[in-house]
């Protein structure tokens, strides 16, 4: 297992969840150099997240406002370029947070709920502290779609969060919770 039992003498805390390991594994399968693979993952994720956010935002709020939002995102990322493009979990979290924000803007309720929940779960499952990044998205959902929609989306997100722990024996949930 990725997460050792608590009685392991080499136990070290980790905030990283299964999604980070699984996404990195895909890139490492294609590119054997770990540093290059995870940096490319960061760039691909960042570009994909920005493009998805812009595409959905343009449909919902128009091109001018979406371009302004992407400009703001790019300026923010420029300040923290190391984290945005680095080989840490942050680049994946940024990608999934942008996609969750984009998902929240989708007009069709079921599609919005599904995309937002998957992306929220993926971000939090990459690093548990990403839950803090989901709070503004939850606030947006609450304001734009109401509390019932928001609660259903969060509940679905929790289900998606648990999915890798239930499907892959490499990730025992009880060991992960002991780390966190």
How would you sum up this structure, described in words?
This protein is mainly α. It is built from nine helices and no strands. The protein has helices at 18-30, 34-61, 63-79, 81-85, 89-105, 109-126, 131-145, 147-167, 173-179. It is globular, with a radius of gyration of 17 Å. The two termini are 16 Å apart. The model has no long low-confidence stretch (mean pLDDT 89).
Write the layout of secondary structure elements.
Blueprint: H1 18-30, H2 34-61, H3 63-79, H4 81-85, H5 89-105, H6 109-126, H7 131-145, H8 147-167, H9 173-179
List the main descriptive attributes of the protein structure presented here.
78% helix, 0% strand, single chain, mainly alpha, 180 residues
Distance between the termini: 16 Å
What oligomeric state do the depicted chains represent? single chain
Measured on Cα atoms, how large is the radius of gyration?
Answer: 17 Å
Structural class: mainly alpha
Short description:
The protein has 9 helices and no strands.
């Amino acid at each position: 297992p990725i997460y050792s039992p608590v009685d392991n003498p080499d136990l070290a805390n980790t905030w990283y969840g299964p999604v980070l390991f699984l996404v990195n594994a895909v890139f490492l399968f294609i590119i054997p150099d770990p540093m290059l693979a995870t940096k490319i993952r960061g760039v691909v994720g960042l570009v994909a997240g920005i493009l998805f956010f812009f595409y959905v935002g343009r449909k919902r709020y128009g091109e001018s406002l979406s371009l302004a939002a992407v400009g703001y995102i790019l300026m923010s990322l420029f300040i923290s370029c190391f984290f945005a493009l680095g080989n840490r979990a942050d680049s994946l979290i940024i990608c999934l947070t942008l996609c969750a924000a984009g998902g929240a803007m989708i007009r069709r309720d079921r599609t919005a709920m599904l995309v937002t929940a998957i992306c929220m779960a993926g971000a939090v499952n990459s690093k548990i502290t990403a839950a803090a990044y989901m709070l503004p998205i939850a606030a947006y959902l609450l304001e734009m779609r109401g509390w019932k929609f928001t609660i259903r989306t969060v509940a679905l997100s929790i289900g998606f969060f648990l999915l890798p722990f239930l499907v892959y024996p490499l990730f025992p949930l009880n060991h992960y919770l002991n780390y966190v």
